[in-house]
Design a protein that fits this description.
Length: 404
């Protein structure tokens, strides 16, 4: 039997005033998820551990079976890998923003008016330079985002940030440990040189209005070295896997964890993504792979925006597309979220998430609807994120016997 894990990012929520005290998942019409809940088993899941507020990256590491507290080394390497930049042992990787500063290094706009054109040319001006004996690998991402990889001897990721996050002056990076002294020095020099190279760049010449601020500096953050992730296939008794995911953070994480990425035209990692194409690609991938992860980012975005009605409608759209997985044979299917992003909080919380598993031959519980409150009394009980994949593999008959 095969395994399919559907992750609706940040889908879990709390009761909402706009929805008469229901959560978006309770308010949404989700006949297909309900059907799978009815035919399968539901429960609640602490994705990392009770009371721990997951990031999307640490949450996905846990859902892939790993202990994020052991393997997580910062967000930068995942963003870099998700943007198509290779990250090697010894590298230090960052995620970056193109930003706007004045001549005194005061940050005027951390996103350079959300610049979306010409960032490839700006990146070309920076990529490939050398600072001391360190190679600078730099690539633009979506809109104002970019990634930076430092490559060379003697690097260490434990440094403070240059990005002030609010308004204020660009900060000077400092080492948190003596071994990181060189890395902080290189990053400070990189930040300064990015300003020198970008301030008069042709792309910025016609960006001088308050609505189109020049992208005249790069602010890097989230430094990390490649994660200590074991091989997915070895870790999971020979399972090979693939991921259908649009957003770069989770793409990079899946790729560095040893899953193949399946590119789907129209998959954007945002609200305008082609949900149907992603579902179809994931189902097709089951022909080739033992395990397929299918990820939808948008519920989390509605949660951060505090838009409970929008989140409800989007969950309905996902459910409609999931109709096709009702016809998938010989597969343990799981639907869950990587964390809660309650619209009332507009950020991630530690509330456990609902989880359902369905597959041929499984026992049923008495749950008939898929949502946070019904899941509390489901047959799966209360599980932890890192146990999920192992449990699915067990239900699929793919784990060896422990003992005689
Ligand atoms: Zn997330
Ligand atoms: Zn989020």
């Amino acid at each position: 039997m095969k395994l399919m894990l559907v992750i609706c990012d940040g889908m879990a929520d709390r009761p909402s005033k706009e929805l008469n005290g229901m959560t978006p998942l309770e308010a949404a019409e989700v006949p297909n998820m309900d059907k799978l809940a009815k035919l399968g088993q539901s429960g609640l899941m602490d994705v990392i551990a009770p009371g721990i507020v997951p990031g999307s990256d640490t949450a996905h590491l846990a859902l892939l079976g790993f202990d994020p507290r052991k393997v997580y080394t910062g967000r930068g390497p995942f963003e870099a890998a998700g943007t198509g930049v290779e990250v090697r042992k010894g590298d230090v990787a960052f995620r970056c923003n193109f930003a706007t500063v004045d001549e005194n290094m005061n940050v005027l706009d951390r996103r350079a008016s959300r610049i979306s054109e010409g960032t490839d040319q700006l990146a070309q001006a920076i990529n490939g330079m050398k600072i001391e004996d360190i190679e600078i690998i730099f690539k633009e991402g979506v809109d104002h985002r970019a990634v930076l990889v430092l490559r060379g001897p003697g690097l260490h990721p434990d440094i403070t940030e240059v990005d002030p996050h609010e308004s204020g002056k660009v900060l000077e990076s400092k080492p948190n440990v003596p071994e990181a002294e060189k890395t902080a020095r290189i990053l400070n020099e990189f930040t300064k040189r990015s300003y020198d190279l970008l301030k008069l760049h042709p792309v910025n010449i016609d960006r001088q209005s308050p609505l189109r601020q020049p992208a005249n500096i790069v602010l890097a953050r989230g430094s990390g070295s490649p994660p200590n992730v074991p091989s997915f296939t070895e870790y999971h008794n020979g399972l090979n896997g693939a991921a259908v995911v649009g957003i770069s953070l989770v793409r990079g994480l899946c790729s560095l964890s040893g899953l193949d990425l399946i590119d789907v035209p129209g998959a954007t990692g945002s609200i305008d993504t082609d949900i149907n194409a992603k579902v179809e690609a994931a189902i097709e991938a089951l022909d080739t792979y033992d395990f397929v992860l299918l990820h939808f980012k948008a519920p989390d975005l509605f949660g951060h925006d505090g838009d409970a009605k929008g989140k409800t409608q989007y969950i309905q759209k996902i459910d409609l597309a999931l109709e096709k997985i009702l016809h998938v044979k010989n597969t343990i299917i799981c639907i869950t979220a990587d964390h809660s992003t309650p619209c009332s909080v507009m950020d991630h919380t530690a509330d456990p998430v609902p989880v359902l598993v369905y597959g041929p031959g499984l026992r049923h519980d008495s749950i008939e609807c898929f949502n946070e409150s019904d899941a509390m009394s489901g047959g799966l009980g209360h599980i932890k994120g890192h146990e999920l994949l192992q449990m699915m593999a067990g239900l699929a008959g793919r784990n060896p016997k422990f003992g005689a």
